[in-house]
Design brief:
By secondary structure, this protein is an alpha/beta fold. The chain folds into two domains: 117 residues, Sandwich (Immunoglobulin-like), CATH 2.60.40.3500; 198 residues, Aminopeptidase (3-Layer(aba) Sandwich), CATH 3.40.630. It is built from seven helices and 15 strands. α2 links the parallel β11 and β12. α2 packs across α7 and α4 packs antiparallel against α7. It is elongated and about 105 Å long. The termini are far apart. About 5% of the residues have low confidence.
């Protein structure tokens, strides 16, 4: 039997210990691990409910990026580099009111993806992501924190008079049609959709049923449509909606003179209800946002003329005006317009009883 000399044995043992230590050190500099998870619903400064998710990691050098899923705006995706799932469940049920559930999936040997499915669409301005350092006192590790606020309006957003009513909202333009473009490149199709989504949320929270002619950036009829085909496709959405009571189209105005400014609500006089709907919405919006009141002019706009219910077209502000363009992309301004439109709709139903 061959026996190593004592000095050789000790040298080999020392080298093995160094190898193990170096291997462990290299491993510690490799993949992060998710080893803790916590969520709760907290109140924002504006007293809105916010879903707060903490993802705990064993190291503080995690590389990550966050994005809304382009194909499903209720999904927020957190991509983590060199990270693996530790001792946490891969499928987690959330509160149900703001968030539905969360999944953790290994994408390959080193990268993983966390997918958060919210109860409503998420917008860029309605979530934030930041990190918190390790806290030895509370035994909390380094954390990536995600806060999601899917309620885009203030607590006073709910309106009366709309419960049980069926309303069609038409965000102007979309897809291949940008609509008017402001001096800073803001496109009408984007702000009309953003405001329409906020109007929809308020109305639905107030008990109404809402159908939108488009819920994303697309042509309603399809590509290569004529103007008439596209506009008729929007009217057809309303015609296919059982028990539709009103049709509201949302736009931003534009004019060659960049000084033009203010808000107007247009109607086509099919009957007295069209004018009354325009007046109620115009009054409530002006009361809420305080821009120049350009009144409720009559107009021969296709979607109003061909809708078989009271229909109006709201020109929120002039996107061609530098100041009003900046307002149109403001979260607070959009919220106020949305609340104003909804209150006007509620007043219309209360006034008419239809």
């Amino acid at each position: 039997m061959f026996v190593l000399p004592k000095k050789v044995f000790l040298f080999v043992l020392l080298m093995c210990m160094i190898f193990v230590e170096v291997t462990c050190f290299a491993s510690s500099r490799g993949n992060c691990r998710i080893n803790q998870f916590h969520y709760e619903v907290v109140k924002s400064e504006g007293q809105q409910d916010v879903l707060r998710i903490e993802i705990g990691l064993n190291k503080n050098d995690a590389e990550y990026d966050v994005q809304i899923n382009d194909k499903n705006h209720r999904q927020l995706i957190l991509n983590l580099k060199k990270t693996k799932i530790g001792e946490v469940r891969p499928d987690i049920t959330l509160d149900g009111k703001l968030g539905r559930y969360m999944t953790l999936r290994q994408q390959d040997e080193s990268d993983m993806q966390v997918k958060i499915i919210a109860a409503k669409d998420i917008e860029k301005q309605n979530y934030k992501v930041y990190t918190l350092p390790e806290d030895a006192k509370t035994q909390k590790p380094f954390r990536i924190v995600i806060e999601i606020n899917t309620s885009a309006v203030k607590a006073d957003g709910a309106v009366s008079g709309v419960s049980g009513e069926v309303i069609v909202l038409d965000p102007g333009h979309g897809g291949s049609d940008s609509g008017a473009v402001g001096p800073n490149g803001i496109m009408e199709k984007d702000v009309t959709l953003a405001v329409a989504k906020k109007v929809k949320r308020i109305l639905e929270a107030s008990g109404a049923r809402v159908v939108m002619t488009r819920e994303d950036d697309r042509d309603v009829y399809g590509t290569d449509a004529t103007d008439r085909q596209e506009l008729q496709a929007r009217v057809d959405v309303g015609a296919r909606t059982p028990d539709m009571k009103i049709f509201v189209s949302i736009h931003a105005n534009s004019f060659s003179n960049p000084q033009a400014h203010g808000t107007a609500t247009y109607y086509y006089p099919k009957n007295d209800y069209d004018a009354l709907l325009a007046q109620d919405i115009q009054h409530s919006v002006i009361e809420k946002i305080g821009l120049l009141d350009r009144g409720t002019p009559e107009a021969n706009f296709y979607v109003m003329k061909h809708s078989n219910v009271p229909a109006v077209l709201v020109e929120m502000a002039f996107i061609s005006n530098y100041n009003e363009e900046s307002l149109l992309v403001s979260e607070n301004f959009q919220n106020n317009i949305a609340v104003g439109i909804c209150k006007g709709i509620g007043k219309f139903f209360t006034d008419t009883g239809i």
